[in-house]
């Protein structure tokens, strides 16, 4: 596609002139070092955009870009730098769904949006995912993320998310969870500022044969006191590093669902395990 940049820009200008609303733009074949034309960011009529196998243009060159009607954005196997995705989200005031998948370079994602409702990140190498302010966000799914560099962990930081209902998949050993500037560690004493009371469904991936991973489970659970459905996937481990007795699990304390109403009984918690 790199040899057809002029034609591609012309096509994108034609699409902009015709007011296209939905667009899937994938560079085939590889490599993804072909830079995504900035002309794409002049199509202000887009409501749904999916891009794949490109190199993102410099964020500094997108100052005049705007997607006032964009509601769904997918970014797949796109080479990005810090701030690239943030810039598009900031310029998309109606964006509700953000899908990110497939990148080998660790980046820092910082989300500030009054419209986002669902964020899904999969098979992506990230140093950090910082949800600073997302008052309408209901779902945050992070799965199969790659180590950003040298076996380091991805930091997931949760800020202002008063409507967050579904969170997963937290993986001790791969993720560091931070809530309101407090890093959640094993044995930590929780207080109100460290609890996300809106979360009803929580998903964990745990290597139950690894002591350092398992001892984080009680700490995670205490941060989400109103969970009604708890999904736990038991991940494989090459070598056992510890055993756990009943006293260890009692540290979690009773886990009960939130009241459905003043009169109804407390809702049961569902545990789903897979080995």
UniProtKB/TrEMBL annotation:
Domain of life where this protein originates: Eukaryota
Every F-box/LRR-repeat protein 15/At3g58940/PEG3-like LRR domain range: 8-232
Any single Pfam family the record assigns to this protein: LRR_At5g56370
Protein name in UniProt: F-box/LRR-repeat protein 15/At3g58940/PEG3-like LRR domain-containing protein
Source organism of the structure: Aegilops tauschii subsp. strangulata
């Amino acid at each position: 596609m790199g040899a057809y940049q002029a034609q591609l820009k012309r096509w994108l200008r034609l699409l902009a002139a015709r007011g296209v609303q939905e667009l899937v733009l994938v560079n085939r074949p590889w490599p993804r070092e072909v830079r995504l034309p900035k002309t794409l960011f002049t199509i202000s009529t887009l409501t749904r955009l999916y891009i794949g196998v490109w190199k993102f243009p410099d964020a500094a060159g997108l100052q005049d870009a705007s997607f006032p009607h964009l509601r769904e954005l997918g970014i797949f196997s796109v080479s990005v730098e810090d701030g690239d995705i943030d810039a598009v989200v900031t310029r998309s005031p109606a964006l509700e769904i953000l899908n990110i998948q497939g990148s080998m370079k660790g980046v820092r994602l910082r989300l500030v949006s009054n419209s986002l409702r669902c964020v899904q990140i999969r098979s992506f190498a990230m140093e950090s995912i910082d949800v600073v302010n997302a008052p309408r966000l209901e779902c945050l799914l992070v799965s199969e993320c790659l180590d950003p560099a040298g076996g380091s962990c991805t930091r997931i930081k949760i800020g202002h998310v008063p409507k967050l209902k579904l969170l997963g998949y937290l993986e001790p050993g791969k993720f560091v969870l931070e809530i309101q500037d407090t890093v959640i560690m094993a044995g930590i004493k929780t207080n109100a500022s460290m609890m996300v009371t809106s979360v009803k469904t929580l998903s964990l991936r745990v290597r139950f044969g690894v002591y350092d991973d398992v001892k984080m489970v009680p700490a995670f659970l205490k941060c989400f006191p109103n969970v009604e459905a708890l999904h736990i996937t038991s991940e494989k481990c090459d070598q056992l590093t510890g055993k756990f007795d009943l006293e260890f699990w009692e540290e979690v304390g009773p886990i009960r669902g939130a009241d459905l109403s003043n009169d109804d009984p407390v809702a049961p918690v569902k545990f789903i395990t897979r080995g």
